[in-house]
Amino acid sequence: MINEIDNRAYEKELNVNGIEFIAGVDEVGRGPLVGPVVTACVVLPKNYLLEGLTDSKKLSKKKREYFFDIIKRDALGIGIGIESEKVIDEVNIYEATKLAMKEAIDNCRKKCKIEHVLIDAMKLDLDIPSTSIIKGDYKSITISAASVIAKVTRDRMMDELDEKYPMYGFKDNAGYGTKKHIEAIKKYGIIDEHRKTFKPVCFYLDKINRL
């Protein structure tokens, strides 16, 4: 049985079976009202250890930035996948996330061989073996690395959007439906980057259409 405390247990088990090039995949941005869903695929060196690396949601911004730079330096391969709010509205967030994950894997494979993919929670139809792990961003160091890369990448995108639309507080809320964000929608309306099928954005649109 896998020891959940050892965040390299999944990788070690694959290594024992002769698998060396292991990719971790995670996403960030399924819940926000604005912006894209961002995914990352990361392949780390065999037996890689980075003390303190865990689920990006459990790390401070300073720690995420610190680990981001180290992972970028040490990883054998990194791929990013991004699906816009328009794609999210068209196919739904779940399907958009899968598309972004496959894009990240494809981009990573251009830089590094991949023999097995560890995926946080989701299952993908791939041409290489994969394992879906519930709470994988905590249980697998490779998925943890992907979660940090995806989180910092998306946060930087939201920082740029915040400079364009400072009234929504994107730098602080990352596009999530905080009180300040909702109040800003009511006061200033929605922007192109808002997800039109997400509540309360769609409620606002419906209200406007009824006027």
Secondary-structure blueprint:
Blueprint: H1 9-16, E1 22-28, E2 37-43, H2 61-74, E3 77-83, H3 85-91, H4 93-109, E4 116-120, E5 130-133, H5 136-139, H6 141-164, H7 170-173, H8 179-188, H9 201-210
Parallel strand pairs: 1-4, 4-5
Antiparallel strand pairs: 1-2, 2-3
Helix pairs in contact: 2-6, 3-4
What does it look like?
The chain has 211 residues and is of the alpha/beta class. The protein has two domains: 154 residues, Ribonuclease H-like superfamily/Ribonuclease H (Nucleotidyltransferase, domain 5, 2-Layer Sandwich), CATH 3.30.420; 46 residues, no CATH class. It is built from nine helices and five strands. Strands 3-2-1-4-5 form a five-stranded mixed β-sheet. The mean pLDDT is 95.
- Provide the β-strand percentage band: 5-15%
Element-by-element helix/strand order = HEEHEHHEEHHHHH
Number of domains: 2
> Which strands sit side by side, in order, in the main sheet?
3-2-1-4-5
- Could you describe the largest sheet, including whether it forms a barrel? 5 strands, mixed
Summarize the structure.
The chain is built from nine helices and five strands. It is α/β, with parallel strands linked by helices and 211 residues long.
Feature tags:
211 residues; alpha/beta; 2 domains; five-stranded mixed beta sheet; 5 strands
